[in-house]
Amino acid sequence: MREPLTWRELLGEIVKNTQERQLILQELHISLLTLQRWIEGESSPGPRQMRQLIDLFPQYRQQLLPLVIREYESINNPFSISDENVEIPATFYARVLSGSSTVSDAIRFWMLSSLIIQQALAQLDPYRQGLALRIVRCMPPQADGKVYSLLECYGQGTTPWKNNLEAEAILLGVESLAGQAVIMRKVIGVHPYNPDQSNYTINGTTGLRNFSASAYPIQHSNRVAGCLIVTSAQADYFTPALHTLAQHYADLLAIAFYSTDFYEAHHIYLHFMPAPDEQRQYLSSFRQRVAAILRDALQQKQQIDTHLAELRVWQQFEAEFLTQTMPKK
Q1: Architecture of the domain spanning 87-267
Q2: pLDDT digits over 136-183, tens only?
Q3: Cα–Cα distance, 329 to 69 (Å, whole number)
Q4: Would the pTM count as exceeding 0.90?
Q5: Closest by CA position to 262, among listed 102, 114, 141, 177
Q6: Please, what is the end-to-end C-alpha distance for the chain in angstroms?
Q7: Helices (H), 4-104
């Protein structure tokens, strides 16, 4: 049996099953005549009905969604964020502000970051078409007071990415999309990403084609702490409404950082970092190094938590990578 060429053909196959046909009629509150007109191309469901239709049959989502978008992309994508959904809910702002004032310092960044990214992912990709959100923060300055790299420290995604992206953390530098956004302190985007025209490093995109990405600086009082990277499996994902919403979430993420996490432009001196695949050869020893630091601290009767131990390991990797990439004197 050949693959359906349109979503209407696929819908025609689905409704051959009496139970599934009846489910559509009941849940979408339409007549059999309307359903038949959709299949034959005489009329089309509205955006809300189309979303309901896809939600009714998760087993057909991977087939149905690309066919729907293919037909609608020249008219109006029914899965784009509407103007009325471009704002972060006021109740969520209140929740973040409440959390920022009550959570302990030890878990402040991680708790607020997780809360904000989870909400952002649900609002930016409600139909799970494929989106990854990553928080990138400045590494602590070295002895000369300069920030030499960025740490991609937290992230969540929907298919084709994993839900939890923490295990994919790497260091980024001037060669990356994030690095350029931090250096220039403005949004940097590639829509769609073309490897022949763009040299930006974007983690987690190996094997993807026709995707898009943007990096939004996280700023406060003309200083920068890092950025929010939004990567979509769709080439034309960033509508004006989505772009605005992503920027609002980057602004909100500033609450997760302390004032000391923000740096003025003259402190940002990013260098090149190795490619992600090259870094992972070294990062395979990450957990062993963390365990060694915690063990040594215990033997010396020093108090150190896991997050601080992890940061020290990242500083070790940063020093090693800088040795590889910095010009020899």
Answers
A1: 2-Layer Sandwich (3.30)
A2: 999 999 999 999 999 999 999 998 899 999 999 999 999 999 999 999
A3: 54
A4: no
A5: 141
A6: 66
A7: 7-14, 18-28, 32-40, 47-56, 61-72, 90-102
